[in-house]
Write a structure and sequence with these properties.
Helix 2 runs antiparallel to helix 8. Strands 1-9-8-5-4-2-3 form a seven-stranded mixed beta sheet, with helices on both faces. A hairpin with a 2-residue loop joins strand 6 and strand 7. The two termini are 27 Å apart. It has two domains: 225 residues, Aspartate Aminotransferase, domain 2 (3-Layer(aba) Sandwich); 127 residues, Aspartate Aminotransferase, domain 1 (Alpha-Beta Complex), CATH 3.90.1150. By secondary structure, it is of the alpha/beta class. The chain binds pyridoxal-5'-phosphate (PLP).
C-alpha cells in the first residue's frame, strides 16, 4: 500500500499545503519576481520572528538543522580535545555535528518516560575536557532544563539545545531555545514548522555568538570578499524563508491541534494492554512533534511486539514510524567512541519498543480513532465507546 492509498498516512505534507496553497504560492511568486533570492529581507524578518517566538536575543538562518548544530559548536569554539555530553537516543545529526567538529560525544542514558537525557546521570561523566551539554528536546517534549542549567553553571559549560523537534515548546513557562547559549532548529519539511526543502536556524542569547554565526554561514565574511576566518556556505534562501514566515502564522494553532490529537489518542488508548503511552512532565508544554508509544515485547517471542504491530497496522492502511531503531552508541558511524551493547539500558530497551503514530494537525478525529481502534483490535483490547467527533476550532 503506498502512502497515497493508505487510510491514515504517517505524514500529511500535502494535507498541510492544500488549505494555505493560495497564500504560499503568492508569497513564493513574489520572491521569484523580486530577483532577490538569498539572505534577503524575508530571512531577516524570519530571524526576528523566530527570535521573538523563542524568547532569544538573536536568530541566524542557516541551510538546515544539521548545519545549525555544527555552526553552533563552531561558534562556541568547540573542537578537537573537547567533550560534549548528549543523548544516544536522538537523530544522528546531533552526534554527527559533535564528531564533525572533532569533539567527542559523551553519552548519558535517557529517562524512560520523557525519552530525554537523564539529568541525574550527567554529573558523573563531566571531566576536565567537558565543554558543553547538548540536550535534545525529543519528540517535542522539553528536556529537564533546570538541572542542566545548574550543572552548566557549576562546571562552566556551554548549553546547546537541539531544538529541531520542539520549536515553541515550553518548560516552566520558558520557551525552548531560550535556556542555553544557543538553540538549533530544523525546518525540515516534516517538522512542526517545515519548509519546502531544507532550512535551519540558530537562536542565540549573545550578540557576539550570533555575529560569529553570521560570519561562519557566509564563508567567514563580514565585509564582502574580506574573509576574517574560515567559514562555509550555509545560507538560507528567500523562498524557504517566505514559506516559513507564511506558515509561522499557523504554528500556534497547529501545535494546539497536535495536543488535541495527543489527548484523543490518550483517551482512546488509555487502558490498552501491551503498550505504554507517552507522558508529559508537569510544567511543560509539549508540542508533540511525534506521538510515540512503547510496545511491550513478549519475552518468549523472537519477534519484537513493536514490529508485529507496525506490520499489522500497515496491512490495515495505517502508517507508523520508528524513531529511532538503533541507538547512536551502537551505530557503526560512531564506533570509534568505544561504546558497547549494555552501556545505556534504557535507550536500548526503548529503541526496541518505540512506535510513532500518525501525528499532524490535519488528521481528522475519525482518522485518530481508526488508528486507535486498529491498535486495540491487533492487541485484543476491548473497543472504546465511540468518541463524538468535535469540529476543530482553528485548524486550517
Ligand atoms: C533531533 C534532530 N536534530 C537535528 C536534526 C537535523 O536537522 P536537518 O534535517 O534540518 O539537518 C533533526 C532533523 O532531522 C532532528 O530531528
Amino acid at each position: 500500500m503506498t502512502q497515497a492509498t493508505q487510510k491514515v498516512p504517517v505524514l500529511g505534507l500535502k494535507e498541510q499545503y492544500q488549505p494555505i496553497a493560495d497564500e504560499l504560492e503568492a508569497s513564493v511568486l513574489a520572491v521569484l519576481r523580486s530577483g532577490n533570492y538569498i539572505l534577503g529581507e524575508h530571512v531577516k524578518d524570519l530571524e526576528s520572528e523566530v527570535a521573538k517566538l523563542s524568547n532569544a536575543q538573536e536568530a541566524v538562518g542557516v541551510a538546515n538543522g544539521t548545519d545549525a548544530l555544527i555552526l553552533a559548536l563552531w561558534a562556541l569554539d568547540i573542537g578537537p580535545g573537547d567533550e560534549v555530553i548528549t543523548s544516544p537516543f536522538t537523530f544522528a545529526a546531533t552526534v554527527e555535528a559533535i564528531a564533525i567538529r572533532g569533539a567527542k560525544p559523551v553519552f548519558v542514558d535517557i529517562d524512560p518516560e520523557t525519552f530525554n537525557i537523564n539529568t541525574k546521570q550527567i554529573e558523573a561523566v563531566i571531566t576536565k575536557k567537558t565543554k558543553a551539554i547538548l540536550p535534545v528536546h525529543l519528540y517535542g517534549h522539553p528536556a529537564d532544563m533546570d538541572p542542566i542549567m545548574e550543572l552548566a553553571k557549576t562546571y562552566k559549560l556551554f548549553v546547546i539545545e537541539d531544538n529541531a523537534q520542539a520549536i515553541a515548546a515550553t518548560y516552566k513557562g520558558k520557551t525552548t531555545g531560550s535556556f542555553g547559549d544557543v538553540g538549533c532548529i530544523s525546518f525540515y519539511p516534516t517538522k512542526n514548522l517545515g519548509a519546502a526543502g531544507d532550512a535551519g536556524m540558530v537562536t542565540a542569547n549573545n550578540k557576539d555568538v550570533a555575529d560569529r554565526l553570521r560570519k561562519l554561514r557566509a564563508h567567514g565574511m563580514w565585509v564582502r570578499y574580506y574573509h576574517d576566518e574560515l567559514g562555509v556556505n550555509s545560507r538560507l534562501d528567500e523562498i524557504q524563508a517566505v514559506i516559513l514566515r507564511t506558515k509561522l502564522k499557523y504554528l500556534s494553532k497547529w501545535n494546539d491541534r497536535r495536543r488535541q490529537i495527543a489527548k484523543l489518542y490518550e483517551t482512546l488508548l488509555n487502558n490498552c494492554p501491551g503498550i505504554t503511552l507517552p507522558k508529559t512532565s508537569a510544567d511543560v508544554t509539549h508540542v508533540f512533534h511525534q506521538y510515540t508509544i512503547r510496545v511491550h515485547n513478549d519475552k518468549n517471542s523472537q519477534t519484537k511486539g513493536r514490529d508485529v504491530l507496525q506490520t499489522k497496522l500497515a496491512e490495515m492502511g495505517i502508517g507508523s514510524m520508528i524513531y529511532y531503531p538503533v541507538p547512536l552508541h551502537l551505530q557503526k558511524a560512531f564506533s570509534q567512541y568505544g561504546y558497547a551493547q549494555g552501556d545505556f539500558p534504557v535507550t536500548e530497551l526503548v529503541s526496541d519498543e518505540v512506535l510513532s503514530l500518525p501525528m499532524y494537525p490535519e488528521l481528522t478525529d475519525a482518522q485518530v480513532k481508526l488508528v486507535a481502534e486498529s491498535i486495540k483490535t491487533i492487541l485484543n483490547a476491548p473497543a472504546t465507546t465511540p468518541v463524538v467527533s468535535q469540529p476543530v476550532a482553528g485548524t486550517v
